[in-house]
Design goal:
CATH superfamily of chain A: YjbQ-like
Structural class of chain A: alpha+beta
Distance between the termini of chain A: 5 Å
Oligomer: homotrimer
Helix content of chain A: 25-40%
Order of helices and strands of chain A: EEHEEHHHEEEE
Strand order of the largest sheet of chain A: 1-8-3-5-6
Low-confidence stretches of chain A: none
Number of helices of chain A: 4
Number of strands of chain A: 8
CATH architecture of chain A: Sandwich
């Protein structure tokens, strides 16, 4: 059993945005040579997250609007008040949504394929963009 | 270290429903012969999810009602409007809740047992039933 | 590849509370001798959870207040009504938030380090304290 590390790097363009990284993950898995095992996907940021769902831009708007409705960008957040002099730190909403959606998903690999369902894509969730972002991949198996 | 794959398959009966799959997971783990390691549980659907909590039908109603209160079945979802001709596609709520609860949980195995706490069960969350559903299990260890 | 088990144990002091367990996790990883692989963090409780975010007490207040706003401590929960004679069981809110945030996170280990981003700490989320709590760690790799 071996462990292979690989990183993705990309830029986001909006405050809230979903980026489909499925094909990038598949490329790293192919390079790893691992055919059976799993890939652990890790977002090393506290204002972004990773999830899994359909590749549908209209749905993505529904998802992001729901996140924003549940955790508004502007509210009396103590984090934002403490850093009221810094526009870059007005991002408590992003930290809170990141706590709910979380930075990790562990996807099975079977017979050389990332074992996703028909309607599943691996979705990076930007919550405080635009920024340059990294995703760490760890492929473990045989 | 070995990797063993196994699937669960079952039918849900309601629109929103929780199904306790703990004993099914334990059976697959037993078959695998792995005693120390972990089982990665994967739901290959974009309108369902997996979580962990108590086996209590009253609590399950509270959980599902809360999900529905936070992400209503009927709202101005762009996904639903795009597919307004299809009653099967009026399911943006299910995709959004699936993005929050997510399709994966990685449970430790220790001394031949799925290492859950006293009040923990593995719960499949149906968000757009009734449907036939699959859960993919991957048991890795020794 | 080896598997090492270790537990954390600590007491929480409030009803809702965040506890940073990063250094405790790092100590167990050091003891394990594993330098490349991952640590699977498991909370064996149905009224607590684990997440990852910044070590900032003001932000933690924002996070907990948001959780409480979305899933109030007092509401017509069937779980609470069923156990209306027991003050200890008035905790449906804790079960529901635990279902959303979930009990597990799988963190990569690289070159002997827990591979967290600059602003990431491993955060235990108490939702029904004060209590004595356990976190199970499983370090797998080489």
């Amino acid at each position: 059993m071996k462990a292979y590390f690989g990183d993705l790097s990309f830029s986001t363009k909006k405050k809230l945005e979903i980026v489909d990284v499925t094909s990038n993950v598949e490329n790293v898995v192919k390079k790893s040579g691992v055919t059976n095992g799993f890939v652990n996907i890790w977002v090393p940021h506290a204002t972004a997250a990773i999830t899994v769902n359909e590749n549908d831009r209209d749905l993505w708007e529904d998802i992001l609007q729901t996140f924003e409705r549940l955790v508004p960008l502007n509210a009396n957040y103590q984090h934002n008040l403490k850093y009221s002099w810094s526009s870059a730190e007005q991002n408590a909403h992003a930290h809170i949504i990141s706590c709910l959606v979380k930075p990790n998903v562990t996807v099975p690999l079977k017979n050389g394929k990332v074992h996703l369902g028909t309607w599943q894509s691996i979705l990076f969730v930007e919550l405080d963009g635009p920024r340059t972002r990294t995703v760490n991949l760890q492929v473990i198996g045989e």
